[in-house]
Request: fold
Amino acid sequence: MGIDERLHASGMRMTVQRRLVLEALQRARHHVTADDIATRIRARHPQIDPSTVYRNLEALEELGYVTHTHFDDRVTRWHRAEAERHGHLVCRSCGAEQEVPIGLLEPLARRLREEHGFRADLAHSAIVGICKDCSTVSSE
Amino acid sequence: MGIDERLHASGMRMTVQRRLVLEALQRARHHVTADDIATRIRARHPQIDPSTVYRNLEALEELGYVTHTHFDDRVTRWHRAEAERHGHLVCRSCGAEQEVPIGLLEPLARRLREEHGFRADLAHSAIVGICKDCSTVSSE
DNA sequence: TTACCTGCAAACTGTTTGCCGCTGT
DNA sequence: ACAGCGGCAAACAGTTTGCAGGTAA
Reply:
C-alpha cells in the first residue's frame, strides 16, 4: 500500500507540504532536525511555515513513516523509519557522531527483554560518551 | 577533602543557595528536574531564583558532585554523582521509570570500548522502550 | 462540500544571560 | 577588598497551539 493510500486510510490527505517533508527526509541520509528540514524546504518554498513541518513530522511518525532520535541536546532528530536501523554514538567532548550496527546493541536488548520484560528501543537515544580521538588526546 | 574545600580549591565559594541545592539533591533519592529542586527550595526560601538553581547545578556538575541524565523528553534530570550506580529504563507508553544495575550495561560498554574506542556513559541517557505491563496489555 | 490542513502570530517550556548590587573569604 | 555569586528581568531555542481561511478528495 502506497503512502497516499495509507494516509487516506487514516483520514489524512497528501499535500504538497507533506510530500516536501518526505522528500527532504529522503534526501537527508541521516538524522536531521525539524529546523534543518524547514530550512531546506524554505530555500525553494519560502511560504512554508516551520510549524507545518513539525505537524507533518508528527503525522508521519504516527503513520510509521518516520521516527525520531534524541542526541545529547534538546533537539529532536528525524529520519525515515525504513532507513537502516542503527545505534548512535555521540561524543560529549567534541560532538562527533558515529553510527553502529543495531546488532551490537542486540545482546543488551535481549537481556532487558528476558530479565525485565522491557522491550528496549536502543536506537531511540544516542549513546553518550567520549570518542576514541578525544580519549587519546586527554590521556596523553 | 570536603566539599567546602573542593569548592574553594576551584576558586568557588560555599553559599546558602549552593548548600540548599546539594541538600535537595540529597533528599531526593533519584533523578529530579531543576524545576523540582527550585520548587522544593522555594517552598521554604521563596527568594531563591530558579536561575540560581541552574547555575549551581552546573557548577556542582563541573566539580563532579552531581550529574544529569536525559529521559524521553526535553527535561534534564539531576542526581548526586555518587548515587549514580544504575541505568534507567523509561516506558514510552506509560512513562514508568525503572532502574537497572549498571552491571547489566557493562558488556555493551565493554564492546563499544574495545571495538570502537568509545567510552560510553550508558547511565547518561535513559533507555526508552515498552515496559512489561504495557506490552502485556497491548498483546492481549 | 467538508474535514483536514495550512500560514501566521502568539504562547509555552526549559534554560541561559546581562546587569548590578551583595557576600564569602 | 574583590572576585565570585545571587536576584531579577529579559532573552533564547525548540516546539506547540488557536485561529481563520484554503484545499484535497
Summary: Chain A has a mean pLDDT of 94. Chain A has six helices and seven strands. The CA atoms of residues 22 and 138 of chain A lie 42 Å apart.
